[in-house]
Structure formats: C-alpha cells, structure tokens
Known about the structure:
Helix content: 40-55%
CATH topology of the largest domain: 434 Repressor (Amino-terminal Domain)
Structural class: alpha+beta
Radius of gyration: 43 Å
Oligomer: single chain
CATH superfamily of the largest domain: lambda repressor-like DNA-binding domains
Order of helices and strands: HHHHHHHHEEEEEEEEH
Number of domains: 2
Largest sheet: 4 strands, antiparallel
Distance between the termini: 102 Å
CATH architecture of the largest domain: Orthogonal Bundle
CATH class of the largest domain: Mainly Alpha
Strand content: 15-25%
Amino acid sequence: MWALMAENDPSHSELASFGEELRREREIRGISLKEISDSTKISKRFLEAIEKNDHKTLPAPVFTRGFVREYARYLGLSSEEMVNRYNYAAAGDDRIEKSAHLDRLVAPPVVIPVKEKKGIPPPYARVDRNVVLLIVIAVALIGMAYWALRFKREARAEAIDQATQTTSASPTAATIRPPKPMPSSTPAPPADDLLHITIELTGDSWVSLDADGKSVVSDELKRGDRRTFDAHDSFRFRTIGNAGGVNITLNDVRVPSLGDEGKVRKDVVFDRQWLQQHASPEGVHTTP
C-alpha cells in the first residue's frame, strides 16, 4: 500500500529523479563515485544511496544535505540549488519528514574540513603521476640506447678508416718485387708483408676482433656478411658468439671450423706462426 502511494506521490518521484540526475551528471563528466569519495571524504556507500534514493542507508537529512552540497560542488553544479531541490523533493517523503523533526533536536554536525575543489578538475590534475614517471623513464632509456648505438657506429667507422689508412700507408715495396724464392714448404709472406683475414658469415654471430691489439669490429654480423681486415703481426678474436656460423680465411689459408653451431669461442689468436704451421701440409687440418 505504501509503495503504491509512493508511486503516485509526485514528491517521491521528484526525489527519485533528483538522485538519477546527480548520477547522470556524474557519468557525463566521467567521474567515479570513488573519486568523489576520496576528495570529499564522504563514504561511497552514502553517495550510492543518494543516487538510488535509499534513505534507509542515509543518515539524518541534516547530514544528507551536507553530502548533497559537497557532491554537487564537486560536479560543478550549484550546491545551494541542488540542496533546495533535495529539500523540495524530500518534503513529501514520510521517512524524511519524521527524521527532519529529529534534526531540530540534534546538534549541528561537526563539519569535517575537506579540500576545496570546485568544478571538474583539470585534465592534468587527473593524470596518474606513476604513468608520467614511466613515460619519463622510457624516454630516458630510448635516448641512452640511441646514444650508445650512435657511439658504436662512430667507433666502427673510425676502425674502418684506420684499417684503410694502414693499407694505403703500406711500404712501396710492392713495386720492388724481391727475387723469387726457392720452392719451400713454408710460403713466403705476401708482398705487402701484412696479414689479411677474411670473415664470411653463414649464420648470425656476435664478433669481437682485434688487429695488432686494436679493436676493428665489435658487433653482431648477419648471415651473408663478408669482412676483410689487415694486421702487421696478429689477430685476436675476443669473442665469436656462433663458431659454426663463421668461416675464416687467413692469407688465403682456410681456417678449420672453430666449433659447432651456437658454440662460443673466446681469445682465438691467428698470427704469422699460426700461418706458417697451418700452411704446411702437416698443419692443414689443425684446429686452433
């Protein structure tokens, strides 16, 4: 019976539409009840009760009016107008009329100071600071990676330039050919008196190579790459990441396989002594 009267009571309908309007205004602005609760210090349970017209959950109207005022102020609505609308809408509700009589006997509540926040907060104020921090860290890491890559490329270009200058600055003895030596099992050093090493990649591999103690390459070489370097005395592979994917030739002498696919080799040295040993018939099949 009471429910039927409540449905026919315009004041009760006004109260229901009042809570519905607050919910609609909040959703239009994209604001959650938790956000309002955190800012105004009003329990989320009471905010939901206001939107649902649940007066069994709400405290006395004198407190509820304060909630409505802070709720409307946070949404950027006229707080006094919304409180007046609440009073008008609640005027015909028996539960509120009874509690309104009790309000006159209860001392005004102690208002808890809250952070004043009028209107919708600006977009920058609603951005998660953790997200901003992650973006800053990501940008810094990208900058460091770019700097490291650029430094590596410059170092590689400098090494190539040095190798080119070394080749161009070799003695002019190439034009003054020495007398042809007698046949021997030990081949004579090349006319330019340099060691030449050629690297051919049959698979991707990290290669770190020094020529006469100076780094000439320290990079990941791709399958199909072919590199040639010169040295006066020796070559030293500090690291070969994939021994089975690297073919090496020293002064036209093919170096036997350094290992299986995926095997890592370190500190592999090729010098004139190695060339003399492996260029002879006895040393052709020797593995360093």
